[in-house]
Amino acid sequence: MRGEATVLHADLDAFYASVEQRDAPALRGRPVIVGGGVVLAASYEAKARGVRTAMGGWQARELCPDAVVVPPRMEAYTAASRDVFAIFRDTTPLVEGLSIDEAFLEVGGLRRIAGTPEQIAVRLRERVKTEVGLAISVGVARTKFLAKVASAVSKPDGLLIVEPEREEAFLLPLPVERLWGVGAVTAAKLHGLGIHTVGELAELEAATAERLLGRAAGAHLHALARLRDPRPVDTTKRRGSIGSQRALGNRPRTAEELEVILTQIVDRLARRLRDRDRVCRTVVLRLRFGDYAKATRSRSLRTATDRTAILLLVAQGLLSAALPEISERGITLIGISLSHLGHVDSVPPELPLDWDDGSQLDTVLDAVRDRFGAASVSRAAQLGRDPGLSAPLLPEHE
To answer: Domain span at residue 383?
Structure first.
């Protein structure tokens, strides 16, 4: 007995673009692109014309010249996310947030008070549509992996239930790209080996998959292909990090451009730390190269901080060390995460000689931006830059 399909994966459809269409009725039914220099999100009308996230803006406009291009409004997206997550937590106490627009929900044990998993999923979708004004796709399955695949297959605005007895019939014919963890590089490697479907990967011996894909990745993907995913919905872990990233498209970027983008990201994240009375001890630089392989570089501080100048100095050092590899391989995404978060009260008081290290400037700038808007004060290096350089913040689900 495999158990019951009680895991929901709920994923908002074309989230940023859908918020724009919700808030501006004139955009409904029209192709919408969020972001100027690089596509941060595209409505389904734009996706139908070939527009994709992380695509260069010029390429997107060539594919869809009648698209409406709008700047990102992160405050609106964050507010919508909060409203949707409130519905998730009103549905079940067992919620594991994955990102700003998706989460797992465990609804086993709610049958007597809330109905079957299917009834719960139907009601959740109706509430998100009615109360928040957004479409959400939901997959229901026995495991997190299958629920996530099911929600993706059901898009847009769909509901798909994978009962335990139907798991193999559902999963094995799907392309290997549907497996959680298969990106462009791994997919190309599998295709080169003549493996195009999940079923073909499942037919391999585990040892063979590990030899072809590497021990960890091979074992993970082979287990998923054979329907093994023991991970429960995890509501206990605290996500001790916040992050922001920016897709860059495929054109070459100078070191100066990358530093400007990095500075914008750190400015916003540091302000967010202070808004929440938080400090961080580790700065993580996230990169995606021209071949779409990913890498991270990190550095931990001796004492946790919320100071923009300190965090920026560390981030710039990480970027500088990575520039030779970026120059050789190209870059398609850059991001920063601040981790090992703590409350500001946990930081020991500073000696008076340390007080003039930027804290007063941070406080003044925060106050100006709170009153006159985030764009009211900019660094000189950012003047005249495309406002589309703004990077979307990834939320904390704590």
So the answer is: 241-394
Reference 337, options 292, 273, 260; nearest CA is 273
| Residue partners of 3: CB distance under 8 A and separation at least 6 | 142, 164
- 217 belongs to a structural domain: yes
Number of Cβ within a 10 Å radius of residue 320 = 12
The CATH number of residue 266's host domain is 3.30.1490.100
Condensed to tens digits (0 to 9), the pLDDT of residues 68-121 reads: 999 999 889 989 999 999 999 999 999 998 888 999 999 998 988 899 999 999
11 is in an annotated binding site: yes
Give the active site residues. 102
Encoded tokens for 47: 């996706």
- Asked whether residue 235 is assigned to any structural domain, the reply reads no
pLDDT at 185: 81
Tell me whether residue 261 is in a domain: yes
Residues 131, 42 share a domain: yes
Cα–Cα distances (Å) from 10 to 124, 141, 208, 384, in that order, read 9, 12, 34, 39
Whether 248 and 159 share a structural domain? no
Residues 159 and 199 in one domain: no
| This model's pTM is above 0.85 | no
370 is in an annotated binding site: no
